[in-house]
Amino acid sequence: MRVLALLDGTIVDPQAPLFRADDLGVTRGDGIFETILVADRQPREIGPHLDRLERSAGLMQMELPERAAWERAVQAVIDNWPWDTDPEMALKLVCTRGIDGGDGTPHGFAMGMQVGEDTRRKRRDGVAAVTLERGYAPDLKERAPWLLLSAKTLSYAVNMAAMREAEARGAEEVIFTATDGSVLEGPTSTVVIAQGKTLLTTPPSSGILQGTTQGALFRAAERAGWRTEVSKFPASSLFEADGVWMCSSVRLVTQVHTIDGTTVKTDPDLHTELTDLYESNY
Ligand SMILES: Cc1ncc(COP(=O)(O)O)c(C=O)c1O
């Protein structure tokens, strides 16, 4: 099931070709994207997602169609989704730099997709993760803006390769580490750990993507009296924590039960508490 909208709000056939072969998004992965959860017609964290799309475009020095165009396309997809049979949708916003050698006009679309059974199972049962080196230092972002650290670019081939490596090692998630051994993020998620009544995550200054789901969780947790902290922590903290989660828009707050083959602490009540906190935003 796919519902595809152009930025003028037109619904088009998702099976018909949309991009030219010389579009820079096709030939170089030169573009940006967002994935948003829409539940019961409500897009979650739409403001933070559109803000992040703008930040990514800024880091890419790329023109971005106006916000109203994205909002129009989002609404068109929502209006055409079969909500009676499918109460959840993963909504992708994609924007490429446009034609190679062209006038720089970006090309964008919004596409709604079903949330797969595999994702629902991970939400429910948790995941086994492996730590993998990401190969950069946590202070590289400021020094090397051309590496586009913390931008959500279309060049996710490395992230997907890391997921295949996890599968080859008998796991289904990855926790990337920096050259100093600190925790970065997952290929498509933010790492959050609990230490007593404190929730801790890695700072975006380390070059990770600022997560909208982690942001929503921390917002609700603070309201409920939790302490939240955004600071660098070593991979060893994963094994000492009271719980480890991978947060992302579609996977939500997924518990990690095993890291590098070692069982880590899981507490079903704590997991329910954090999931309920996240959901209390909507
Ligand atoms: C690299 C990376 N980090 C973190 C996230 C989590 O972000 P969000 O919670 O906004 O989906 C994503 C989302 O896909 C991601 O690709």
Automatic annotation (TrEMBL):
Q: Name one GO biological process term.
A: carboxylic acid biosynthetic process
Query: Known EC number(s)?
Result: 4.1.3.38
Group of enzyme by EC: lyase
Any Pfam family matching the protein: Aminotran_4
Q: Which GO terms describe its cellular component?
A: cytosol
- Assigned keywords, A-Z: Lyase
Q: What's one GO MF term for it?
A: 4-amino-4-deoxychorismate lyase activity
Does this entry carry the keyword Lyase? Answer: yes
Q: Does the keyword Transferase apply?
A: no
Q: Superkingdom, according to UniProt? A: Bacteria
Q: Which family does it belong to?
A: Belongs to the class-IV pyridoxal-phosphate-dependent aminotransferase family.
**The name this protein goes by in its record:** 4-amino-4-deoxychorismate lyase
Instruction: Please report the organism this UniProt entry assigns to the protein.
Output: Saccharopolyspora hordei
Q: What is the lineage of its organism?
A: Bacteria, Bacillati, Actinomycetota, Actinomycetes, Pseudonocardiales
